[in-house]
């Protein structure tokens, strides 16, 4: 099968919160790309496509505690506790998405060289560098 995704999805297990109308839904980040993320929430959120939410990704201390990464998102799809969101209204460089993606890649000790080469290509294309 041919990979049709525009950007690599880095697997993760970071804790997340999805905030909608003051209600916070806890969960785990399944994977993240430059465009969006897949979340596994503790309870089915009951949010329909197009719903705007604030995603907070809790980062590991490095070496000091860091505030959560906050990104405005829009729900794309959901099934039970899984929810796909796309990033909206943010500056990718300023939001820390690239830094987070790189951090998540470093956490994968068994990462295949082909995957790393593919990610480097995506980053080069994304940042318009040779």
UniProtKB/TrEMBL annotation:
Chain ranges of the PilZ domain: 4-94
InterPro entries documented for this protein: PilZ_domain (IPR009875)
The protein's name in its UniProt record: PilZ domain-containing protein
Organism: Geomonas subterranea
Lineage of the organism: Bacteria, Pseudomonadati, Thermodesulfobacteriota, Desulfuromonadia, Geobacterales
């Amino acid at each position: 099968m041919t990979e049709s995704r525009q950007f690599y999805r880095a697997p993760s297990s970071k804790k997340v919160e999805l905030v909608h109308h003051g209600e916070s839904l806890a969960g785990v980040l399944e994977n993240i790309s430059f465009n969006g993320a897949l979340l596994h929430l503790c309870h089915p959120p009951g949010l329909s496509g197009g719903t705007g939410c604030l995603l907070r990704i809790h980062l590991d201390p490095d070496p000091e505690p860091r505030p959560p990464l906050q990104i405005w998102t829009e729900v794309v799809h959901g099934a039970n506790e899984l929810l796909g969101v796309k990033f909206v209204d943010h500056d990718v460089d300023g939001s820390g998405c690239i830094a987070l993606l790189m951090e998540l890649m470093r956490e994968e000790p068994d990462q295949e060289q082909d995957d790393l080469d593919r990610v480097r290509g995506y980053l080069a294309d994304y940042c318009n560098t040779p």
